[in-house]
From TrEMBL:
Listed SUPFAM superfamilies: Molybdenum cofactor biosynthesis proteins (SSF53218)
UniProt-recorded name of the protein: Molybdopterin-biosynthesis enzyme MoeA-like protein
Species in which this protein is naturally found: Paracidovorax wautersii
CDD domains per the UniProt record, alphabetical: cinA
Domain MoaB/Mog intervals: 6-184
Record-linked Pfam families: MoCF_biosynth
Domain of life: Bacteria
Ranges in a coiled coil: none
PANTHER family named among the record's database cross-references: NICOTINAMIDE-NUCLEOTIDE AMIDOHYDROLASE PNCC, NMN AMIDOHYDROLASE-LIKE PROTEIN YFAY
Record-linked InterPro entries: CinA, MoaB/Mog-like_dom_sf, MoaB/Mog_dom
């Protein structure tokens, strides 16, 4: 079975509004391009207790989860430590991560025309970025070589930790998808078929929506009302989504029933993913 995919966004800067989250739409895009979909997203501030609880739930599940942010080595970065607490394992310097971080430090020294000093306090501190929960696997970082990491939970769920910077996080998430999740790509093609309905009330359409879901249990019906759309004004976008093989029959029932009640139709939209 295809697992549920989840996303965790860590950082006070998102919840305070200092920065706008860009990860959610991008992860949806990356998953959709591979015939997958996002099941949920959690936003968590820099609170170790909340981060640990959120990760503990992820590890106890069977989900594939991406966690963005908080894996640096400053006092407000808690994600690495919280992951270890959630798994009840110690932290340790990952040897491959250490090698990559040292390589990055040598690159920076060379770029700046300086000698590489491995024992300099700031360089020693940078190795903390490679301190991961015991048993973690690294995620390559093509931007600056400082890796992320992946951990497996007792429930079978996996959490893949990447930085908060999109320029690093997004190619790292793509790498995980292509290396670890390709067996699920495009296994269950999905279709979404909807239509704009003018002048209708959701309450009046609810019995019809319930009937479609009863008669076609593989399909979900959705209703997206709008009161001030710049083109369509007040309207409802009503549609069905689910396996591509099941949507046509459900759509036929919905469409014919809407005609039967004299619905005022606008444009239709069909999305395949």
């Amino acid at each position: 079975m295809i697992p549920t995919f989840g996303l965790i966004i860590v950082g006070d800067e998102i919840l305070s509004g200092k920065r706008a989250d860009k990860h959610l739409p991008k992860v949806i895009e990356l998953l959709t391009a591979r015939g997958l979909s996002l099941g949920y997203a959690d936003y968590v501030g820099d609170d170790p207790e909340r981060i640990t609880a959120t990760l503990r739930r992820a590890f106890a599940s069977t989900d594939v989860v991406f966690s963005c942010g908080g894996i640096g080595a400053t006092p407000d970065d808690h994600t690495r430590q919280c992951a270890a607490h959630a798994l009840n394992v110690p932290l340790q310097l990952h040897p491959q991560a250490e090698a990559l971080i040292r390589e990055r430090m040598q690159d920076v020294a060379k770029e700046q025309g300086e000698a590489y000093e491995p024992d300099r306090p700031d360089n020693v501190h940078r190795l903390n970025m490679g301190v991961f929960p015991q048993g973690a696997q690294i995620i390559p970082n093509p931007y600056n070589k400082i890796p992320g990491f992946s951990c497996q939970g007792a429930g079978g769920g996996s959490v893949h930790f990447v930085p908060g910077f999109p320029v690093m996080a997004w190619p790292m998430i793509e790498w995980v998808l292509d290396q670890e999740c390709s067996q699920w790509f495009n296994q269950q093609p999905q279709t979404e078929h909807s239509v704009v309905i003018y002048g209708a009330m959701e309450a009046a359409l609810t019995p019809l929506m319930e009937q479609v879901e009863r008669d076609h249990p593989q399909v979900r019906v959705f209703s997206l009302p709008s009161v001030d759309h710049p083109v369509h004004g007040r309207h409802i976008e009503l549609g069905v989504k689910g396996p591509s093989s099941a949507v046509p029959a459900a759509w036929t029932l919905l469409h014919q029933s809407l005609h039967g009640i004299g619905a005022n139709f606008g444009p239709e939209v069909v999305r395949n993913f």
